[in-house]
Structure of Adenylate kinase:
Amino acid sequence: MNLLIMGLPGAGKGTQAAKIVEKFGLVHISTGDMFRAAMANKTEMGVLAKSFIDKGELVPDEVTNGIVKERLAQADIAEKGFLLDGYPRTIEQAHALDETLNNLNLTLDGVINIDVNPDSLVERLSGRIINRKTGETFHKVFNPPVGDYNEDDFYQREDDKPETVKRRLDVNIAQGAPILSHYRQSGLVYDIQGNQDIDAVFADIADVVAKLK
């Protein structure tokens, strides 16, 4: 069973990925973990990636694609299957993944897309506030401060402000649309309603995965 999980920032992708891995025994492959492991193990692509990172430069697609290929070629993938998280991020990477899977005789069984209305994500992601004195983090809606307090006692980081969050979501939507379209053409996408509680979302995902097994 080989799966890809997609979703906008704040959609709960990380939470659901952990649940999928625990229940179905798949190998969780996230971009960050792959890069760290490749660099620590000093693989060919890991050394190359480090040379860009050390200079403060973006790692080119061909290096990222190479690191993914190195990871997917390892024995545990063939034994257990994988859940790919955070890759591909562009349509070019999606095409590269197709080629990698084909070369390794692996098949992508499904794309789990956690679908959440972007407007609700703006509220979810831009509600974080921080106490100026204590550094404690709260959320205006989901975890408001208790007791008497003054709004001036709190501040918002620039990247938590609604306009910044909306821009970030817009970029993610634009990047994700062609990738989802690509996989829809192959009938691989399963849309999961993400505006439910965590357990309900996972129940829907589990139903899909059970049918794919």
Observations:
- The beta strands are 3-7, 27-30, 82-85, 110-115, 128-131, 137-139, 154-155, 189-193.
- DSSP finds nine helices and eight strands in the chain.
- The first strand starts at residue 3 and ends at 7.
